[in-house]
Design a protein that fits this description.
CATH topology of the largest domain: TATA-Binding Protein
Number of strands: 7
Largest sheet: 5 strands, antiparallel
Number of domains: 2
Number of helices: 6
Radius of gyration: 20 Å
Helix content: 40-55%
CATH architecture of the largest domain: 2-Layer Sandwich
Strand content: 15-25%
CATH class of the largest domain: Alpha Beta
Strand order of the largest sheet: 2-6-5-4-3
Oligomer: single chain
Distance between the termini: 73 Å
Order of helices and strands: HEEHEEEEEHHHH
Structural class: alpha+beta
């Protein structure tokens, strides 16, 4: 009787642990104190991801996708960036038990590690490419208010997209238009 109870308790514990899931982690990181341009931001993100064995693919101005594969599971994310912010958002996964709101804790650990690496690269200046002095001067000539206004507009269209009020195509076009006009 005691043995049956212990076996039942063990099975219940294993079943409960197997069902554990966390709310999916998406990152929306402003970069306020560092003066970086778009290429430096891109390089810092790519370097950080590759250090952690993510496969990174540029998808256009201000957008990357990254894929992490190990054993039989996979995670895919989209990364949007500009000189003043970057976002990391879930795109797809395999064998990570994603149900629309929660996911296996390993996914969030991967995202937190990537976030830590990106911040470290930005602070240490780990950029693969260097900018031209003219580009730096142009970036510095923008008033801080314009950067904040751009950030506010980008966050607003992101919210509209997440709420389903605009399509992905409309979001991408507007985001690109805002970044290019900056």
């Amino acid at each position: 009787m005691k043995r049956i109870f212990l076996v039942s308790l063990l099975l219940l514990t294993l079943f409960t642990v197997g069902l554990h899931a966390d709310a999916i982690l998406n990152i929306n990181q402003p970069v306020r104190t560092l003066k970086v341009n778009s290429e430096q931001m891109k390089s810092a993100i790519i370097n950080a991801a590759r250090e952690l064995q993510w496969q990174v693919t540029p998808e256009g101005e201000g957008r990357l996708t990254a894929r992490y594969e190990k054993s039989d599971y996979m995670a895919k994310i989209t990364i949007n960036y500009a000189p003043t912010f970057y976002t990391i958002n879930y795109a797809d996964s395999k064998r990570m038990r994603y149900d629309g709101k929660t996911i296996h804790p390993t996914y969030n650990r991967l995202i937190k590690a990537l976030q830590t690496n990106i911040v470290r690269n930005l602070k240490s200046g780990n950029f693969a490419t260097q900018t031209h002095p003219a580009a730096e001067q142009k970036a510095e000539s923008k008033p801080a208010g314009e950067e904040e206004e751009l950030r506010t507009k980008l966050l607003k269209i992101k919210r509209l997209h997440e709420e389903g009020l605009i399509t992905t195509e409309e979001y991408d076009a507007k985001r690109k238009s805002l970044i290019m006009s900056y």
